[in-house]
Amino acid sequence: MNNPFDSGQRDDQCPGQTRRGFMARGYLWLQWLAGALLLYPVMKFIDFSPPKKPRLVKVLKEVAINGFVVEHDFILFVDQDGPRAISRKCTHLGCRLNYQTRENVLLCPCHQSRFTTGGRRISGPAPKDLPSYPVTKMSGNEGPGYVVSL
Predict the structure, then answer these.
(1) Whole-structure pTM over 0.90, yes or no?
(2) How many other CB atoms sit within 10 Å of the CB of residue 122?
(3) Are 33 and 62 found together in one domain?
(4) Are residues 60 and 121 in the same domain?
(5) How many independent structural domains does the chain possess?
(6) Rounded distance, CA 132 to CA 29, Å?
(7) Would you give per-residue pLDDT tens digits along the chain (150 residues)?
(8) What is 94-119 written as a DSSP string?
(9) What is the CATH number of the domain that holds 115?
């Protein structure tokens, strides 16, 4: 009776391939795979860092409606909806954005990416919108101003 899986050659006619060698190499690959799967969580644990605490930045001035304040890491805009802080770091290569008051846009000086005052990308090579940060208005004896959580 013919075996459909039999190539018609004997094992000794395929000099580099024996069943025993094939099984040994398969077992070796299985060991490598198991080792990699076991090492992955260990390597992930070694690289673990606790989440950063938010950095609080105080803007110690009152901003009029439709006004803005430029800080190092963000621009604080105040309008009828309240205050909002938009990042000054371009999402393309990280250049510091400038606010163009005539056009009412944020402009990247490196590659001319343009963003709205709400952080939405208008044009340019930047791939994403700008992140915004939570803002709270200071009250009571703290004086006028805002607190931005970075």
Answers:
(1) no
(2) 14
(3) no
(4) yes
(5) 2
(6) 48
(7) 566 566 555 555 566 678 888 899 999 999 999 999 998 888 888 877 888 888 999 999 889 999 999 999 999 999 999 999 999 999 999 999 999 999 999 999 999 999 999 999 999 999 999 999 999 999 878 788 999 999
(8) -PBPEEETTTTEEE-TTT--EE-TTS
(9) 2.102.10.10
